[in-house]
Known about the structure:
The protein is an alpha/beta fold. It folds into 3 domains: 4-136, Rossmann fold (3-Layer(aba) Sandwich), CATH 3.40.50.12160; 162-385, tm_1862 like domain (pyruvate-formate lyase- activating enzyme, Alpha-Beta Horseshoe), CATH 3.80.30; 390-454, CATH 2.40.50.140. Helices cover 34% and strands 21% of the residues. The chain has 14 helices and 20 strands. Helix 1 links the parallel strand 1 (4-9) and strand 2 (32-33). Helix 9 runs parallel beside helix 10 (253-259) and helix 12 (289-302) runs parallel beside helix 13. It starts with a strand and ends with a strand.
Amino acid sequence: MVLKVAFHTLGCKLNQLETESFADAFGRAGATVLPLDSDEGDADFIVVNTCTVTGKAEQKARRIVRRALQRNSSSFAIITGCYAQVEAEALAALDERILVLPGGRKEALLALPAWLGSREMGDGDLLARLREWLSGLAFCAEDGEGRFAYEPEAFAFHSRPALKIQDGCDNSCAYCRVRIARGRSTSLSATEALARARALEEAGSAEIVLTGVNLSQYRDGDVDFPALLKLLLSGTERIAFRLSSYEPDRVDEAFLDAFADPRVRPHVHLAVQSGSDDVLAGMGRRYGGAEVVAAVEALRRVKRDPFLAADIIAGFPGETEAEAAKTLALARSCDFAWIHAFRFSPRPGTRAVSLPRRVPERLAGERVDALRDLGRAGRAAYARRWTGADVSAVIEDARGVGSTGATAENYLKLGILGLPSGTLSGQSILCRIDGGRAGSATGDFDAFASYIRPGR
């Protein structure tokens, strides 16, 4: 029996890497891994790796599962991830064909294909087999041992591989449920991180995306994140490194020294959250607006016009019009190339869920819209500033000829023109950013670029 499995991922790059590992395990065992945009109705079962950052993310997970089960009456769903960690019973109650694997034990999915292969599947009662598997798992306290088991041999859904070096978070931000779901900060050993980076380089990868819940809390003995980045650079020869996100108050001299290396991509996504010191204090953040501005200025001193993005929460309880205006003004002064703005979502189990002076949804939505408009304008301006520049890029969607998607070193999404036939996804190229084409829209691209030659 050849299984057909579909995967859905919500949330962070950490979840994306973990899903890649699940897909790799099933693929190596002979299962058919369906493309991300395929019809789940063709799948024997789906795996949904969930997020609990916002209520909307949880709502989307429920919608994906219900749709898949409606399309195929013989299919079922395995739900895992952060939402499954904190709301297992509620998810299991949605449908009898739902199996819930708490996020703290999601690494068990890596061994599931081998477990299924060791059993006779001819009777076709796959759901019964999976219930047997789930009931046999020992749901003991999470000790962190399995958190770094995610090391796929091949990536089914991404051209740029990710390397998980950290999980969990020791902060106590008032709004955050992820720290509850993922627990305390833990880190992959520096020795193992270097070994995995070298393996990816030897496999021909052009860049590695370093991922974690809070990269700034990476620590292995005396090795913190800047020291690890230095170690990865000195222990490899050509591969580039990209950061998934970073805390603005941890942009210190040691970090800047490592970030300045030419093989570290000029791209940082800062967890800003607000431009108001009072709101930041209420959130439990450990910095103020001045520290955000200082981090942005420092990053621009050590790299040529890096792509700087920001996470911002609008409508935190008690946020006044004046405080929202401070956030908008800070974002404008920082000239972010992108802003990921979203409304405050009250998360069960967090301190903020019971805070008074809740901002009306409509008003919070208007503040989000203003931030997103600023982010879109910032991205367009950033792309214009790079018009005419030669940049390295990694091919994301190689169709062989014509306009093909790629991610530039500065994180712009480019449509590559004139790509030679035979160019593969994941390959590094050098290209020249041409800007938008006169009289036509760039669609999903920030700009078009002309192919020059293969990259290093």
